[in-house]
Every structure is written in C-alpha cells, then in structure tokens.
Write a structure and sequence with these properties.
There is one protein chain. The chain has 449 residues and is an alpha/beta fold. It is built from 14 helices and 18 strands. The strands form four sheets. It has a seven-stranded mixed sheet, sandwiched between helices. A six-stranded mixed sheet has the order 5-4-3-6-7-17, with helices on both faces. 45% of the residues are buried. Nicotinamide-adenine-dinucleotide binds next to helix 7 and helix 8.
C-alpha cells in the first residue's frame, strides 16, 4: 500500500470508529482551526505576498475575511444544520414518522487551485469538517509558499488520521487512483473532467467548482461611471486571476465610447503605473505571464498593456476593439486584460452568450429592472449580480457554484454543509396498526378500486 493509500485507510478507520460524528468534536476542530489561523495571520498574508504579491489589505479582504465568515457561520449554525429533520408522512407510510438524517460521507478529497490558495483550500475544508468528514487536502503546486504554509498549519492543528494535507506536488495519477467518499475540486474545466473520470471508477460523488468566460453586459441605461468603477475593481483584483472576474464586457454600441473612456479614467486614477506598484498583484508564474503577453500582442488596439518582466506584473489593459473571433475570446483570460465588445441589439448579445459554454458568473449593468430580470431568466450561469460584480461570493446565505461547463454542486454556509452530507431518509414505523391490504397475495379483486 502506498503512503497516500495508508493515510486514507487511517482516516477511514478513524471515521468508522465514529470519532467525527459528535458535534462537540466538529465544533472543537473548527475552533482549533480558527485559533491557529488567527495566530498565523501574518504568516498567511506574507505567503500570499510571496506567491501573488497580494497586498495585506487585498489578501485580507479576499481570503482571510471570507474564511473567517465561513468559520463563524459554521460554528454558530452547525447544531441547527445537523439536526435530524422530521418531514411529513405519506399515506403509504402512515402512521410512521419520517426523517432526514445528515450523514457525513467519510474520507473526502479537497483539491484547490492557486489563485486564492488559502481561501479555496480552507473554505471547503470547513464545510467538510462541519459535516463530520475526514479530509485529504491537496493544494496547488503553483502557489508554493501558501501551499507549504497550509500544509504546516493543518499538520499542527489536526491529527493526520482526521485531516491530512498531502504534498502539493503529489503525483496526480496516484492521487486520483485512490478511493475517496467524496471529491471536492476547484480548478479548470480541463482538470475537472480528469477528476470526474477518475471519480467515476469508484462511483465517487463530486463537486466541481470550475471556471470559464464570465460576461458582463452593460446596457445603454446603465450608470456608466459606476459600471466602470465596479468592473475595474472586480476585474483587476488579484490582477484578474479570479474565477468569477468579468472575463469580457458586452456593451451597447451607443455607450461603448463612454464606457471605454470611463474605464480608462478609472485605470489611470486607481492603477497608475500598476506594473511597478508593490501592492498590485503579479501573475502567478512565467507560463501564465507569457500567455497573457501573447494575448495582448495579438490585439491591434490596446489601452494600457504596460508590463514588468522582472516582477511578472501586467498593468490593467483594455482591449477595446475585441471581437468573438479574437484569440482573447477563445479561452478564459485569467489576467488583467478586458476585451470590450459592442452589440446593437440585446438579443444578439444574449445569442452570443448562449452559443458558448455556461459561465460561472454573469453581470448586468442597467437601470432597467425589467431588462435585468429578463436577462437573469434567459441566461444560464452559476451566479452573478445586477449593477455590481463579485458580491455573490461574499454572502454565505447564497449557494456558490457553476452550471454546465463551469461546474456542478454548490457550497458556502449551509450549502457547504449539505454538499458534504448524505441525506439519509428514514421511516420509523411501529407494529400497530398493521394494515393487511399491503401484503401479498395480490390476487385479482383484492383491491376493488
Ligand atoms: P487546475 O485545474 O490546473 O488545478 C487545480 C488543482 O488540480 C491543483 O491543485 C492542481 O495541482 C490539480 N491538478 C492539476 N492537474 C491535475 C490532474 N491531472 N489530476 C489531478 N489534479 C490535478 O486549475 P488552476 O490553474 O490551479 O486554477 C485556475 C482555474 O480554476 C481557472 O479555470 C479558474 O476559473 C478556476 N477556478 C474556479 C474557482 C471556482 O470557485 N469555481 C475558483 C478558483 C479558480
């Protein structure tokens, strides 16, 4: 048995001894995790700076604050979430009582990406622990410093028979060859397919939190300055390396010039010489840096586009003459490049979005409430905002997840707990009354209906 297989076997043994079932245990583990994270805050922020050059303020807002929010919610609500739920009986089960039990799966695998390496490793883990599972965590090999820190932190907090963080460079095939009771994957659709294929071998259920090209529609009634400010904020956070960032803008032609101008002014005001600023995030690695440089080079019209090869930073860049057949529209951008495409009729824009994979997010800027409502109902996407961006991720009362190519399953708050729980239906009956007509033989005329 390989070493990973041994770890999983140890977790199953721990789980099968019912050690993770008592709520007191789960709450204690969540408490321990929170204490350690609070103690290690400076080290976490330092690691995020080393990996992605995230400033303390940005890293706190987009990683730590979200983790604390999940911890607070789970610790406060766990007793309610985990309650056995009594539901109405049916005529067939009368007079039995009917219940739903929330049952943990067992030993689960959590696979995390590099762009929000702390938040996207720890938030699913909080949900897995709350639901009473053991977990193997695999962080990304790209976010070297944060992944190493998480590994150390989890080792210090938990026994390996409960939570084990495997090396970020663990062989992928070996990792996916193992049998888990659930797999929670955050990453690209390409690897999502590999994970799902491997999971099918053991009929392991999966949640896939994937990515894609998320559109932002700006219609002519929109407050253009507000739209520009919010789009720029959401797009250039983490230098565009955000799964729910606006990937491209679809703007009504009549207001396109005004939007481009407002975006350019916003960039000048808030991201002046960003590529030289310490507080502006870097591109994760040379491969992605070069990929993004290539996307800029392929465009004739570019606003911005300054880069710093040494620090691998790319300033916010507008691609104001982009179109659907351009290179930048063929794959998820995942960087600070913003294609802006004009449309004349809203129906055309809707058609273009529908012709592509279902996105993880969609944003709509308009003052016309009916138009916004119509778009929400016509388009399929994971989640989104009207007159804003990204905010759907920050509210743990909202389920977070994709649809179609952008993923399956949801988490955050109660939804995370539910994701890591099997809903077990139980009917509790007694011996009386024992109505005879349900029993064989079912000869003709038994029930004269
Ligand atoms: P990725 O798919 O390359 O990697 C994700 C994780 O899978 C990493 O831990 C990686 O080591 C591992 N991995 C890579 N190849 C594997 C294989 N063959 N078998 C098993 N595991 C493998 O994704 P990434 O580059 O780290 O992240 C970027 C992608 O993630 C983007 O598409 C982005 O949109 C998406 N994303 C989605 C969300 C979300 O919540 N939906 C959040 C962040 C990022």
């Amino acid at each position: 048995m390989g070493s990973l297989a041994k770890r999983i076997a140890a977790q199953r043994a721990f789980f099968n001894r019912d050690r993770t079932k008592p709520l007191a245990f789960r709450l204690a583990m969540l408490g321990r995790l929170e204490t350690r994270i609070r103690e290690q805050e400076d080290a976490i922020l330092a690691a995020l700076r080393l990996d992605l050059s995230k400033s303390r303020a940005e890293a706190y807002m987009t990683e730590l604050a979200l983790v604390y929010g999940e911890l607070r919610e789970a610790r406060r609500k766990l007793r309610i979430w985990a309650r056995t739920e009594r539901v109405r009986g049916s005529l067939a089960s009368f007079p039995a009582r009917n219940f739903i039990y929330r049952e943990p799966y067992g030993a689960v695998l959590i696979l995390a990406p590099w762009n929000y390496p702390f938040y996207l490793s720890i938030a699913p883990l909080i949900a897995a622990i709350a639901a009473g599972n053991c977990a193997i965590v695999k962080c990304s090999e790209e976010s070297v410093h944060t992944s190493a820190l998480i590994r150390k932190l989890l080792r210090a907090v938990f026994p390996a028979s409960f939570v084990y963080c495997t090396a970020p460079d663990t062989d992928h095939e070996e990792l996916l060859r193992q049998r888990y009771d659930y797999i929670f994957f955050t990453g690209s659709p390409r690897v999502g397919k590999i994970v799902m294929r491997a999971a099918s071998e053991h009929l392991t259920p999966v949640t896939l939190e994937l990515g894609g090209k998320s559109p932002c529609i700006v219609d002519e009634s929109a407050d253009i300055k507000l739209a520009a400010r919010r789009i720029a904020w959401g797009k250039f956070l983490n230098a565009g390396q955000t799964c729910i960032a606006v990937d491209y803008v679809l703007v009504q032609r009549r207001v396109k010039a005004a939007l481009v101008q407002a975006l350019a002014a916003e960039i000048e005001r808030r991201y002046h010489k960003a590529e030289q600023r310490e507080s502006y995030p870097k591109i994760i690695n040379r491969r992605h840096y070069e990929r993004l440089v290539g996307l800029i080079a392929a465009e004739k019209e570019v606003i911005g586009g300054a880069m710093n090869e040494r620090t691998e930073k790319i300033a916010p860049t507008l691609l104001p003459e982009a179109d659907f057949d351009h290179t930048c529209m063929q794959e998820e951008i995942f960087g600070p490049l913003l294609p802006i495409i004009a449309y004349d009729e809203l129906e055309t824009a809707i058609g273009e979005i529908k012709a592509r994979e279902k996105p993880l997010a969609c944003y709509i800027f308009t003052r016309d409430k009916r138009k916004a409502e119509g778009l929400i109902r016509k388009l399929s996407f994971g989640g989104g905002c009207v007159n804003d961006v990204l905010l759907q991720i920050g509210n743990h009362c909202l389920p977070f997840g994709g649809v179609g190519n952008s993923g399956m399953g949801v988490y955050h708050g109660r939804y995370g707990f539910e994701t890591f729980s099997h809903m077990k239906a139980v009917v509790k009956n007694t011996g009386f009354p024992d109505l005879p007509f349900r029993y064989a033989p079912f000869d003709e005329g038994k029930w004269k209906l």
